[in-house]
Amino acid sequence: MTTTTALKAEGLGIRYGGRARPWALRDCSFALPAGRVCALVGPNGAGKSTLLGLAAGLLRPTEGTVTAPPRERLAYVAQDKPLYARLTVADTLRMGHELNPGRWGGAAAARAVDGALPPEALVKDLSGGQRTRLALALALGKRPELLLLDEPMADLDPLARKELMGLLLAEAAEHGTTVVLSSHILTELEGTCDHLLLLADGRIRLDGPVDDLLTAHTLLTGPVADLAPHTVVESRTTGRQLTALIRREGPVEGPWETTAPSLEDLLLAHLRTSEGARS
Ligand SMILES: Nc1ncnc2c1ncn2[C@@H]1O[C@H](COP(=O)(O)OP(=O)(O)OP(=O)(O)O)[C@@H](O)[C@H]1O
């Protein structure tokens, strides 16, 4: 792995429970440059949690390899947020400090919980969203090189989401942390993530810097016609009118009105296409 690659997969695949089972992830190859904030997107069951579990070293691949920083330089916030139920908030952070001597980012961890969680509250008495906040505080306090977050914002209220996302991005920018963040909330990824991995049916459908992917695609409307040599990601026709998202091969020449897609346009079109391919 070069110094500028934070996470790399080569021909990565896994089937849970042996040969008779279907592939949960297959033929997955990518190299995520260090310092990126990467959105991991895909329909339910696409393989996002599986990929994060493999990257965190919690799952063993059936084929291929995944290269990530060692466990002490990586933090993983899983969907179920495992924490010690009988510890208080303050004890949990103290434990984080003790487990990460010389590296603990106490200020960031404190910022995630201060004013929101009483230090003496027991973990078992916290709500789902409060537990998420504490798990994020622990992950930020660890000052990891690679931060893997599995739908971290799903059970947070909108204000907490905004606040913690802001804190996360500020910390990542300050320390050059690479973040991989799975999410179904597409609007939230716009302006947050600079890299994209889209999975469908256990395979990578899109991979690259968000700006490059957006630049490579065009939304067009106009008369129905053959769009070759461009690749049509998704198209709809209403009467004689065509609306399509294309991946361009050279300039778009024709009577169409073209606009740049938003990240949400791009993701929705690719998600609908992979959904269609499945049914
Ligand atoms: N522990 C497991 N045992 C067997 N199969 C599993 C296990 N975990 C996941 N799978 C299967 O692997 C595939 C990928 O699941 P995964 O949880 O990685 O998807 P996901 O993209 O994270 O989905 P979601 O958006 O619903 O969280 C699915 O077909 C799922 O049924």
Describe the structure.
The protein has eight helices and 13 strands. With 279 residues, it is α/β, with parallel strands linked by helices. Among the domains are: 73-144, no CATH class; 212-277, no CATH class. Strand 8 and strand 9 form a beta hairpin. Helix 2 packs parallel to helix 4 and helix 3 runs antiparallel to helix 4. It is globular, with a radius of gyration of 21 Å. The model has no long low-confidence stretch (mean pLDDT 92). The structure holds adenosine-5'-triphosphate.
Summarize the structure.
The chain has 279 residues and is an alpha/beta fold. It has helices at residues 48-55, 89-99, 106-113, 128-141, 158-175, 186-189, 210-216, 263-278, and strands at 5-14, 25-33, 37-41, 63-67, 74-77, 146-150, 178-182, 195-200, 203-209, 217-223, 231-238, 241-247, 257-259.
Q: Biggest sheet: strands side by side, in what order?
A: 5-6-7-3-8-9
Q: What small molecules are bound in this structure?
A: adenosine-5'-triphosphate
* Class computed from helices, strands and strand pairing: alpha/beta
Helix content: 25-40%
Main β-sheet, in a few words?
A: 6 strands, mixed
- Overall pLDDT metric: 92
Indicate the multimeric state.
single chain
Shape: globular
Number of strands: 13
Order of helices and strands: EEEHEEHHHEHEHEEHEEEEH
Beta-strand percentage range: 25-35%
How widely separated are the two ends? Answer: 38 Å
The count of helical stretches stands at 8
Contiguous low-pLDDT stretches (5 residues minimum) are none
Radius of gyration: 21 Å
